TrEMBL record:
It comes from Candidatus Raskinella chloraquaticus. Residues 543-646 form the MaoC-like domain. The keyword Oxidoreductase applies. Residues 14-446 form the Aldehyde dehydrogenase domain. This is Phenylacetic acid degradation bifunctional protein PaaZ. Keywords: Oxidoreductase. GO terms for molecular function: oxidoreductase activity, acting on the aldehyde or oxo group of donors, NAD or NADP as acceptor. It holds the Pfam family MaoC_dehydratas. It comes from the Bacteria. InterPro entries: Ald_DH/histidinol_DH, Ald_DH_C, Ald_DH_N, Aldehyde_DH_dom, HotDog_dom_sf, MaoC-like_dom, PaaN-DH. Coiled coil: none annotated. The lineage of its organism: Bacteria, Pseudomonadati, Pseudomonadota, Alphaproteobacteria, Hyphomicrobiales.
Amino acid sequence: MSALVLESFAQGHWVAGTGAPVMIASAVTGEPVASASSDGIDMAAMVRYARTIGGAALRKLTFHQRADALKAIAGLLTTHKDALYELSFHTGATRSDGMVDIEGGIGTLFVYASKGKRELPDETFLLDGDVDYASKSGAFIGRHAYLPREGVAVHINAFNFPIWGMLEKFAPAILAGMPVITKPATTGAYLAEAAARLIIDSNILPPGALQLICGATHDLFDHLNGQDMIGFTGSMETSARLQSHPGLLKNAVPFVAERDSLNCSILAPDITVEDPEFEIFIREVFREMTVKAGQKCTAIRRILVPENRAEAVSAALIERLARLRIGDPRLETTRMGALASLSQRRDVRARIARLAGESDILFGDPSQVSVDGADAMKGAFLSPILLRVRDTASAETVHNVEAFGPVATLLPYRAIDDAIALANRGEGSLVGSLVTRDVDTARHVIFAAGAYHGRMLVLDRDCARESTGHGAPMPHLTHGGPGRAGGGEELGGVRAVKHHLRRIALQGSPAMMSAVLKSWIKGAPEITREQHPFRYAYDALVIGQTFHSKERVVTLADIEHFASFTGDIFYAHMDAEAVKGHPFFPGRIAHGYLLLAFAAGLFVDADKGPVLANYGLDNLRFLKPVSPGEAISVRLTVKSKASRHRDYGEVRWAVEITSSAGEPAATYELLTMNAHIA
Ligand code: NAP
């Protein structure tokens, strides 16, 4: 194929840079695949366009509408994935490496689309918790909400996962309503460009929602302010340089960094060679060394094993590594492809040389490798390299130098506390795994090493088969680690959406806050309408709409009937003698569940209507016991609404059961599904 001239997408147009382009070579053949330049592109104008055109349009959409857009993009990319795989081979990735990147990226979009629909409201803002405090009379309250930022999310990605890296940042940003300027690493930018082109040209997103820089970012950072944010993935050196940009510091531009990580996996002392966990450990380490030729930020770099298992572990790993077929990633027999570029291979070799200063190479030759179907020297092929430190106690480099390739080092340890100390010497990593069957060991390691790791995986025979593995960040779980790993946090479901929003503390009257935030707060006006609220379809119900029931006396006969009917003959309801001197109860009291059942009987409007189903209760609290002879009544108020489906939506009702003394006996939130049209 002839080399592609990559274009950036700026201010609504595809443009090639004006300067001398950087040539990007195939990782497999060394032949040119593409060239990229962003010279001459007006970065300030891109930022303005993102803020004023893209951001303004995205902020008009609700979370649900943005989630629909993500789902449509995921569907679109799925239909074009063969073309993406074709390009992916040039990055040195095998088909299964490509799956992690391409399907992993698409899967992340699907997860965010689904979470956006299920876990976020059909609104443009998000409440954060309930009322946090109220004044003495309740006329003044405080609570929190997340509002959209008014800036642009600038995403700078590493070379190893051109598609996943772009989409895992893009999905939460778009869901939050932030326009994105994305910059793939120049190596492999042709793959990111192809995916971005599909997204942009589909017009699924409003104009300005996504812009792309293929090449350098030039003076982009000079134009960012406190409404913008940066998501960076790459090396510690680049991150430190970019983070110290004076404009970013002055304007307090949030900078989320995902950087180097010297991840470890620990084989616990309780695992013998005969246990299935031993094989699980070997499989995991082998996979982490070889998938994507070890160019994964989460790959296992440090293999911590009990001293008396070190020989067995190294023998088992060497046996597997010797069988590994390396070569042209298009070949079906190939299990490991090439590194991303020749310069990457030079870098990894240099780092292996540093590691070898304190370690012996047990397997592999950094300077040569036998490959199938390709020229080992023209392509960026490298043998997997297994090292073993000569002296665990004095080894330093292994805890500081990340060789971003198929390279891992064995560190024999004496006792589990030594393993923990070694694990933590990575000074902050993305993931640590532990293979054990022993609960005490697992607890000890998690609590003693947890602060140093973003994610911890405990593997044993019970979960290994279904485990997503040491190295796979999941969109549901946070991805990021402290210290060396950058201190950033990405993914983690809705958490990442919140990172792209601004949390604001709000104060005011219950009436004002209820109306502004579309969530009724006690003390705000109650709205009484002609009919019972159950007669109103989802769309017709208004926030604050309230029903007050008549009273009902709770008798001793009711309590005894309920007890015998349900079998709940707990002494506090049945035995006056036994309850004497009880710290909470004045004597026999009504069952809490009896109160709930009576409350339903008091507030329900029985005829068939728009209320389709009772869907559950949240935040139930029994506040005051109800004694036989006392009367209760119920207040039912529409607290908030969330459309869930074309045909129905969820209504959250604030319910308060009051005893005849005028005190709340119970409060809870009742959820019903109500039809849009009665
Ligand atoms: P890198 O050299 O630091 O580059 C990362 C990104 O920064 C690239 O897009 C690069 O663009 C860009 N960049 C470099 N200088 C820049 C500047 N002055 N202004 C703006 N952007 C600039 O890292 P890499 O070699 O691509 O990636 C390998 C490293 O990333 C490894 O150390 C690995 O541990 C880390 N990584 C971490 C994670 C994680 O999630 N924590 C994931 C993957 C990789 P160009 O390509 O155009 O130079």
